[in-house]
């Protein structure tokens, strides 16, 4: 039996599991089993949590396919929401979450029941223009963005987000596993809706298409700011909802504001000792 908490950020859902109760277990296998939509609890990933005090924690992220990842912006915010819910935190309080990509500070903007709004410092993005060549010499223009995890942001104009004569889901899978990215990469497809608003689709490494991504949202906004001259404050719309990105200048930390909802706390009965 394994206790878990489930939370989501714009539909990007995560399970939060106390790391101590699964010490010595095969975390990759456990994540695959827990995240399975029909035979497990169901989620895009598992955050294995080591709580240090009410406002400080360390987490280790495993994707739905069992692969380890450096960080998830939405997953980190889900953990922050669970901490805020458990400790009864209020607007203005901060939680400190140590990830494999470094420490992220999440400032609580508002709370209502199990719903929370946070602004998270996401680090300083590194953006460079790049092109990925698919088969038949089809090229995808965009940017490689380092957000503590790898991102490729493709710039598109079509309303269906298709690129290089392919549906974005197909192109995302091809780019994610492209030889240019030996460790694979997260992929976003971004188009401009207005001067201060963009829309994205996400193919997440280790998961596939997702409704939202915190690091993907951040990377997409950073790429548009650097490559397309978008303003330093952008609203980013994904299928699961909208988040706000603020990046004053290239040497400043990017800030991401968005929601997280604590959904449930339960016990996975299939999670007996191996």
Model description:
There is one protein chain. The chain has 274 residues and is α+β, with helices and mostly antiparallel strands. The chain folds into two domains: 2-119 and 260-268, Roll (Diaminopimelate Epimerase, Chain A, domain 1), CATH 3.10.310; 126-252, Diaminopimelate Epimerase, Chain A, domain 1 (Roll), CATH 3.10.310.10. 18% of the residues lie in helices and 46% in strands. It has four helices and 17 strands. Strands 1-2-3-4-6-7-8-17 form an eight-stranded mixed barrel. The longest helix has 15 residues, at 73-87. It is globular and about 50 Å long. The termini are close together. The model has no long low-confidence stretch (mean pLDDT 96).
Largest β sheet strand count, sense and barrel closure: 8 strands, mixed, barrel
| Total number of distinct structural domains | 2
Total DSSP E strands: 17
> What is the radius of gyration?
18 Å
In the CATH scheme, what's the topology name of the largest domain? Diaminopimelate Epimerase, Chain A, domain 1
DSSP strand content? over 45%
Kindly, what is the distance between the CA atoms of the first and last residues, rounded to a whole number of angstroms?
Answer: 11 Å
- So, the CATH homologous superfamily of the largest domain? Diaminopimelate Epimerase, Chain A, domain 1
Total of DSSP H or I helical runs spanning 4+ residues: 4
Judged by helices, strands and strand pairing, the structural class is alpha+beta
Strand order of the largest sheet: 1-2-3-4-6-7-8-17
What is the succession of H and E elements? Answer: EEHEEEHEEEEEEHEEEHEEE
Q: What integer is the average pLDDT?
A: 96
> Low-confidence stretches at least 5 residues in length (pLDDT < 50)?
none
Question: Which word captures the global form?
Answer: globular
Give the CATH level 1 class of the largest domain: Alpha Beta
Q: How helix-rich are the residues, as a percent range?
A: 10-25%
């Amino acid at each position: 039996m394994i206790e878990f908490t489930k939370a989501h950020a714009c539909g990007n859902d995560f399970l939060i599991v106390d790391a101590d109760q699964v010490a010595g277990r095969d975390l990759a296998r456990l994540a695959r089993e827990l995240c399975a939509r029909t035979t497990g609890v169901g989620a895009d990933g598992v955050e294995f949590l080591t709580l240090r005090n009410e406002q400080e924690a360390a987490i280790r992220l495993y994707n739905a396919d069992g692969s380890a990842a450096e960080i998830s912006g939405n997953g980190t915010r889900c953990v922050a929401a669970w901490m805020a819910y458990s400790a009864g935190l209020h607007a203005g309080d901060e939680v400190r979450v140590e990830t494999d990509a470094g420490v992220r500070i999440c400032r609580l903007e508002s709370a209502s029941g199990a719903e929370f709004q946070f602004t998270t410092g996401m680090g300083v993005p590194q953006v460079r223009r790049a092109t990925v060549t698919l088969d038949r010499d089809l090229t995808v223009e965009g940017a490689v963005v380092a957000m503590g995890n790898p991102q490729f942001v493709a710039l598109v104009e079509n309303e269906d987000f298709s690129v290089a004569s392919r549906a974005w889901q197909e192109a995302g899978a091809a780019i994610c596993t492209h030889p240019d990215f030996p460790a694979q990469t997260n992929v976003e497809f971004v188009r401009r809706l207005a001067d201060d608003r963009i829309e994205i689709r996400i193919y997440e490494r280790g998961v596939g298409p997702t409704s939202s991504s915190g690091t993907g949202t951040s990377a997409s906004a950073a790429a548009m700011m650097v490559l397309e001259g978008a303003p330093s404050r952008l609203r980013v719309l994904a299928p699961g909802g909208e988040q706000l990105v603020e990046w004053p200048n290239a040497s400043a930390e990017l800030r991401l504001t968005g929601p997280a909802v604590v959904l449930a706390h339960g016990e996975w009965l299939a999670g007996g000792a191996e």
